[in-house]
Amino acid sequence: MKRVFVSCFLLIAAFTTHAQEKVDQAMVSKIKKEGFDNSKVMDIAFHLTDANGPRLSGSPGLLKASNWAKNEMAKWGLTNAALEPWGEFGKGWELQKSYVAMTAPYYKPLIAYPKTWTKGSNGLKNAPILLIKAKDSVELAAYKGQFKGKAILVYRTDTLVPTYKADASRYTDEELDKLAAYQLPQPSQAPADTAELRRRREAMQRRGAGGPNLANLIKDFATKEGAVAILSVSPRGHEGTLFVQGGGSYAPEAPENPLDIMLAFEDYMTFCRLANAGIPVSLDVDVKTAFQTRDTKGYNVVAEIKGTDPKLKDEIVMLGGHIDSWQSSTGATDNAAGCAVMMEAVRILKTLGVQPRRTIRIALWSGEEQGLLGSRNYVKNHFADPATMKLLPDHEKVSAYFNIDNGTGKIRGIYTQGNEKVKDIFSAWLAPFHDLGAKTVTLSNTGGTDHQSFDAVGIPGFQFIQDAIEYNTRTHHTNMDSYDHLQADDLKQISVIVASFVYHTAMRDEKLPRKELPQARGAGGGRF
Amino acid sequence: MKRVFVSCFLLIAAFTTHAQEKVDQAMVSKIKKEGFDNSKVMDIAFHLTDANGPRLSGSPGLLKASNWAKNEMAKWGLTNAALEPWGEFGKGWELQKSYVAMTAPYYKPLIAYPKTWTKGSNGLKNAPILLIKAKDSVELAAYKGQFKGKAILVYRTDTLVPTYKADASRYTDEELDKLAAYQLPQPSQAPADTAELRRRREAMQRRGAGGPNLANLIKDFATKEGAVAILSVSPRGHEGTLFVQGGGSYAPEAPENPLDIMLAFEDYMTFCRLANAGIPVSLDVDVKTAFQTRDTKGYNVVAEIKGTDPKLKDEIVMLGGHIDSWQSSTGATDNAAGCAVMMEAVRILKTLGVQPRRTIRIALWSGEEQGLLGSRNYVKNHFADPATMKLLPDHEKVSAYFNIDNGTGKIRGIYTQGNEKVKDIFSAWLAPFHDLGAKTVTLSNTGGTDHQSFDAVGIPGFQFIQDAIEYNTRTHHTNMDSYDHLQADDLKQISVIVASFVYHTAMRDEKLPRKELPQARGAGGGRF
Hints:
- The structure is a homodimer.
- The first copy, chain A, has helices at about 1-15, 25-35, 40-50, 60-75, 135-140, 175-180, 195-210, 215-225, 265-275, 330-350, 375-380, 425-430, 450-455, 470-475, 490-505; strands spanning about 15-20, 20-25, 80-90, 90-105, 110, 110-115, 125-130, 150-155, 230, 260-265, 280-290, 295-305, 315-320, 360-365, 400-405, 410-415, 440, 460-465.
- The first copy, chain A, is of the alpha/beta class.
- Chains A, B: Homodimer. The monomeric form is inactive while the homodimer is active.
């Protein structure tokens, strides 16, 4: 009798419920033990960042990191580890030399990073600065004929405001409560129909890129007349932190973009003040870049832990994050962090010898920084095209996709993307992690990363709520996105929670409930 | 009658008193108007920073800035504007080229600054990193013979802590209240006698520089075997902010110091992790520096507004700050700010046509960063040597010296350096500036800059209490100490308050009261 009693007790303990949702406490404990005591997450992150270098889409660095991840997961015993092409990406690019310094009115080393996909200087050039003070194309015309051999500087008068707010932060209880209390808008409050949304989107795109805007005109002048470089600045960056992204098209047939160099705010503004005071400024510029068009395809890294339930093993639970980065650092928080925790989550599950009912599939996306290209194309190739919403056979087999791409901060909860039917399920799954700071389930959604590719075709795709730490101030798309800015304890917590979510999704009797299928977006509605 | 009444009223208004101390409200109003409405302080700062470049002691940059300041003040009508030699400084040095990049395991531009007074690389060198893991000279001996052609990296394992505290701050009321409430220690609580103080100081110096410490041994190995460079880091700096100072002796007869390069924390730690993992790291290093020994004297910039009272015109009120800086930026907050506000203060007074009873003398010191050398030698040459305390005739003629050297933050009050007799005087003089945030008079003292040279020989020397802003986190001795980090409104406030203090000191019937004369320090007690 006693024995029977104990068994019953264990059974109850093993499957405590929150709104009837099962939680396998014993497995959670094992995952926690492996994830906290034997973590490999920082070692994985080291290999993706320090040891590999930048992972720009299409670059040799990304290919190297992708192969490392594939091989590593194969070593752990995952199956079907592969680099899966998703379609045409574009030109590869890498930086091979960058020396940029001020030589007049005195010598000063500069903090400078050529933007991606821009060409080099063709050797060392000494370039006087051409100060452009033009509000529009008419005023710019006065500078015609003056670009040759110059470093082009568009005048600014920004004032730097000292940072009286800390660079790093974590969610407060109040902020989390607000997220938890979020209610879905009533139909009448919701934005108008899809056609209206599309019109708004297209109008935004026109404002952003269309027309003869000044930056494009300057680029044309620089190209035609042979400027040495265009100089750029991002006032979001200061004190040596620079936000650096792309310098133009990476399409295979596109002409090489003129050299465009992102400078430290303080250096750029010094040039503006000097040039404006009539003091000649010259730069030494010696930048070498290399394009590659041998293979213009994009690749995602995929690997699996095969399902074991005869009825469910063809169904899949996916987890992932994008592995591509920008160029000026090694993309540690954006998004080696996401890849490292996802790889660590499958390593934990594999190490524990789990026998998931459904197949667990990890995917590390490329081309995310250029518009979620890797995940969008993967979804289109495997599940559905949001333009037509013609569903492929595997569309119904995916229970959910879980994504990490908000930096190094630990998980504080999860966005349901407006899916009310998963709220109680996720609340139950988070219960074992309240002591680790993760408890909030919000009906709110979040955008900007790869879960949207799934959500866009009606497959449950989720992104977790993460503490920001220094993501928005110091690391996201900056030259400071390095391994040092990763928080080891946070990444362990993420790995453990993701492993548990993925495990429970794989073991659940039913797939996760879905929202209504979205309407077809049409060919013009590809971006979301 | 009415007219007489008005005159009396004006007389009362013009000389309101706080503990009987006169305040010339009309002059204060004029100073405020000129200082806030017609300020030139940011223009002066621009010339000292952006337009001039770094102002390392002994460098061509310092000479240029000093001459500019001298000529500018002469233009304003100040008399006796001159570069006054104060004695032997040492070698001049300037940076003529600095290209430092990682070339293996992948290419990465680095944020790097050669330390001052180190030699160059003699052209472009590709240097593999030699990782040193040695706790002492015995362990270091194992690396003997391996330095040639290498970049020397001493292993560290620091973890970067995100900044949950804002970089910039201002004094809170509570902090100011605490300063105001400061009481001088009773004689029994005071530190022991001068001999004891000297013993402590010498012991500290021994710990800091003496003995066969590891850094000196590595420098010896690097020199003897021909390393390309020693790599350095300061963990106080992060996210692109680097703290960079000197790399060795600047004495005329000293051998050239081996090249020593300060790297961004994130770059240095990346090298440590890579090298520790057995992944070879190589750097391209192309650094050119130039020494000059043609003129090894140090110079201060001095200029005067002559006194007009026949009895008092040989007495002087001094104001100043150091004009020398470190090398990696243009020394905006340390201490172009101090020079700019002091120059602006005399400009305001000259513009207003004041006829001071005593002579007002501004001094912009050099060699401050190497131990208050310019001001200490000036005091020794003109007033007294603290070693002997034999007083020169002018010692009794100085009423006070006012100094600014704590960055760009506005004045919140003044340190009396323990001089109880000036407390009520300064309180009265601050009364017109309470609305500008300046009200605190503290008996506490503050150290580290040029007022100490005066205080050390018993001449009242004062430094103001200033808001820190980003001084300790981002600008003081960093590569980010640029014009952009100056706060224009704060500098205007400082200029105005200093002008008023100097004016009132010049007009006062008596010189400011002095503390007791200090005892002679003896030859070994030169540093304070």
